[in-house]
Amino acid sequence: MASTIKQAIGSWNTLHENGPFPAKFLHITSLETKANMPSVIDRYNDATIEIRRLLKEAMTKGEGFRAIGSRWSMSHIAHHQDNMQVNANMNIKKAMQADELHPQSAFKPENLFFFQCGNVIKEIHNFLAENGKSLKASGASNGQTIAGCVSTGVHGSALDVGSVQDYVVGLNLIIGPEPDDVVYIERHSKPALTDQFAANIKSRIIRNDDLFNAALVSLGSFGFIHGVVVEAEDRFLLKRYVKRISSVQALELAASLNFGDSPFKIPTETDANGKGIRPYHYKVFINPYVDQSEYVVEMIYKKPYQPGYPDPIPAVKTSIYRDLILLFIKIAEKWDGTIPTLIKLLQKSILPPVDLELTGTLYEIFWDAGYQGPAFACSVGVDHKDSPKALDLLVKLAKEEGPIPGIYAMRFVKQSPATIAFTKFPVTCMIEIDGLLWDAGKNNMISLKQFCTRMIEVLKANNIPFTLHWGKNADWSFPGLAGHMYGGAAEQWKKLRSAILSPEAAKLFSNDFLKDLHLDEYLENEPTVISQPVIV
């Protein structure tokens, strides 16, 4: 049987030490061994029973419950003061078979895979590679769990692919302690798997587009995400270039994404007419404290997979234009340990020399994270057409009301259909600000919370629609924030959450993060039609 170790902990912290937060208990769940239970589905269902037991225990005591993965988020989205369940050991993987596809499915069976919640992206990369497949996109690093990525909307910088949740085609949720509280959800317009598969994992099936889109980016609050069905694709290679270009041209590309007509071209990445090819990925790096005539940009192009390419990992290990905090640490390598000295260094430092060109798979290019110490990260999503203006405002904020010990980047991501995905614009520009945590009082500086508040106020004052990355630092209790960012979509999300959860379950899966955003509100008498399948 699956088992859980319960630990009294007193406090809990994120990977990048953005707490500590008070917490009573940590529950570490492990699966039954393969030797004792060889069937993948049996072990998965056995874990379902264990999670239901934990939920019943918490609900009986009137306590809350929250699953956590790799502790990657810098906000308090993963925290709960009562019970926190570690799902890192829950990592079953399964390739779907042709007879498990719904008769109306448009998916290829060889591209569908079932992953339990605790699988980290690195594990998934390896499993898919063994099957000749790849994820479509991932974040800048690979240590997050799949459930954490989906529920917070982790993105890469894929112009035409989207975020991690955008290639999820099925969700298995445990929404309470009873056997009937295990559901498998798909879109009714794009069914993926058979009713029999849902029955095999002891789930009642719901096919409903609105519910699925709301549950995709659920903030951990639609229930316990036990498993996801992912659509992968054939393996491919990525050719990565890091170049210095005119800052004017970099921002023109940000606003237009017209790579064909841009005066900046990579000679080896043009079409038959000499026009620039649209890249798979576009990223701009900015030191806000130095007026730069040139920016460093990272441009990545998708290529067919061919074996025998040179191993890119040695070069990736030394690459500094990969993870933004890693670049920040490289710039700050002469830092003597005081924040004022670090700020002065930033005010003098141009960005380091560019990296070598390299080719590798998605897994290899976006390899292991290089820094896991105390850090902050803010990430603002805007329509890419607004990105030059938004960047200018946020840079001025850092200069005039800061300084803060961080640098900036811009990434560009395809729109997500998820109801409250922060990649909500046709192409969203994520303006990222990463750096080291600081003591505002000790250094007579603006605090991180004040800076986060001012970011919201400045964007609102200049009428720039925006979103905020759910897993990063922000003023999450800013009045009316969710409604301002999502309008009626935030209300729709609450309605659908209320429709699928009982009042007791809604309370069970709420936490302070949800309450700060006023998304914890339970709306009585919401339609129950979504509890029935649309396609049978």
TrEMBL record:
InterPro entries, per database record: FAD-bd_PCMH-like_sf (IPR036318), FAD-bd_PCMH_sub2 (IPR016169), FAD_lactone_oxidase-like (IPR010031)
Entry protein name: FAD-linked oxidase
PANTHER family (UniProt xref): D-ARABINONO-1,4-LACTONE OXIDASE, L-GULONOLACTONE OXIDASE
UniProt lineage: Bacteria, Pseudomonadati, Bacteroidota, Sphingobacteriia, Sphingobacteriales
Highest taxon above the source species: Bacteria
Record GO terms (molecular function): flavin adenine dinucleotide binding; oxidoreductase activity, acting on the CH-OH group of donors, oxygen as acceptor
